[in-house]
Amino acid sequence: MGKLLKITLVGIVLAFVGERIVRFRERMGATRTLDPVELPNCHLLEGIEAGSEDIDILPNGLAFISAGLKYPGIKSFAPDKPGEILLLDMTDKNPVPVPLTISPGFDVDSFNPHGISTYIDRKDDTVYLLVVNHPQFKSTVEVFKFVEEENALEHLKTIRHDLLPRINDLVAMGPDSFYATNDHYFTNSIMSNLEMFLGLRWTNVIYYSPKEVKEVATDFCMANGINVSPDNKYIYVADIFGNDIHVLRKNPDWSLTPVKVIRVQNILSEKPIVTQVYVNNGSVLQGSSVACVYDKKLLVGTVFHRALYCELEDQ
Ligand SMILES: [Ca+2]
């Protein structure tokens, strides 16, 4: 009987692990095949070889690009080069990314930028850039003021908080207030890998301001990109391993109310709610993480690879 019990238990564990492996591969899209969709006028941006994880474009066409992310378990083509913020003028005929200098006193050697978000103060048109940073793989948010005439960022402050242990992206609500996603629950790398493998829905969205910090949404498999709707009423959260986009209403007290979930799987159905304008199998771009449009021009960034600039066709 003892032997039979052991065999039964081993069988149950193996069945569980096998089922988790199958589900994990599904979430990662490991077996998905891609039918390429091309755009006629595309080129890779010069000078970006080691990531362009996040992009934010100002209304005047100046794009900030977060470059050179180093992240546990993810390839880096420039492991010894600190990350940087690049500026790209989308109104140029042939835009070229230019690195922004950072004011003295900020530790540029450990700069490891991830998600970014701009905020314009309408009182004086000051542009603030909020940057998720991972110095020594920790999580902070750096607040910079953009000094356009000097192609520079002036560092104003560093924000750290216990509710922000694994920040991925953020969307600014003020010069030092924002919604941010934590992409893992655990900070320990073994536990955070296990969390991902088991498909636990333990990641969340935090609202941060100097006066108040609170969890405003939870139960995401891996909360990742976050943004605000153009009318400023809704927050969008991409759950990459949940394979969906969550739409949440912003309330006056900064709490969020879930409105709907957009399943990205419907992309190939008869009535797709998402249109694919560009699809590549990795021969041009690998690990794309962000896409922005300005004046019919598309900018696609990647976690660790290059960046693509395309002209969109009229739909
Ligand atoms: Ca962002």
TrEMBL record:
Glycans are attached at residue 281. Keywords: Calcium, Disulfide bond, Glycoprotein, Hydrolase, Metal-binding, Signal. Its cofactor is Ca(2+). Disulfide bonds join 42-310. InterPro entries: 6-blade_b-propeller_TolB-like, Arylesterase, Serum_paraoxonase/arylesterase. Ca(2+) 2 binds at residues 54, 169. This is Paraoxonase. One of its GO terms (biological process) is response to toxic substance. Binds 2 calcium ions per subunit. Belongs to the paraoxonase family. Ca(2+) 1 binds at residues 53, 116, 168, 224. The active site is at residue 114. It catalyses: a phenyl acetate + H2O = a phenol + acetate + H(+). It comes from the Eukaryota. Its EC number is 3.1.1.2. Glycosylated. GO terms for molecular function: arylesterase activity; metal ion binding.
